[in-house]
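User: I'm preparing a small set of examples for a lab meeting where we compare how different chains pack in three dimensions. I only have the primary sequence for this one, and I'd like the structure in token form so I can line it up with the others. Please keep the answer compact; I'll paste it straight into my notes.
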Amino acid sequence: MSLKRQLVEAAHELDRRGLNRGSSGNCSVRISADRFLVTPSAVPSLEVTQESIVCMNLGGDVIEDSPNLQQAEPSSEWRFHRDIYRKHSGVGAIVHIHSTFATSLSCLRRDIPAFHYMVAVGGGTDIRCAPYATFGTDELSNLVLQALDGRRACLLANHGMIATGVNLSDAVRLSIEVEALAQQFLVCLSVGQPSILTSEEIRQVLAKFSNYQNPRQK
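Assistant: Understood. Below is the structure token output for the 218-residue chain.
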């Protein structure tokens, strides 16, 4: 399956799972060291087609890579996609969603602490929430890079979530896991303050995760 087709399928799957609705959110996949494909702006997820996928380089330029290319604009969030690829050579795909629980938690501007050992899927001892900035701006992109330092996923204050992966399947899977963690953490907060694993306890989990076969990006 071509990377464009994989990107279309990822966008459709996220919509079918209810993780995105309408034209919210976006996805991208790296196609070479200096180019990536990204979903179009203002197009509902289920209406994304291979012809509407936009190819860009890491300079931020749109590349005319197909004679059938529709004149679609890249996602308004292309900057943080580009900047994540620039900084993290091992990232092969990025999923940005406005899923219900992750977005709700982001509106509280809360990190997800190590209340459950699976928080380690985010690559560290917590999943950070980046401070708020207007969507599509360099300011937001810079805040995202800080929140993703040493991490595979983060929340965006009053906005949503980003999950990265070595490929689209990996990124989609991580977005689903982070959404589940956000839901569980919100349930805990509705009752009281959950017990948080110690640094040593979560680091033991991270060490065990590092022995898994599927690769993780740098």
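A couple of notes for your slides: Residues 213-218 have pLDDT under 50 and may be disordered. The domain at 3-210 is CATH 3.40.225.10 (L-fuculose-1-phosphate Aldolase).

User: Perfect, thanks.
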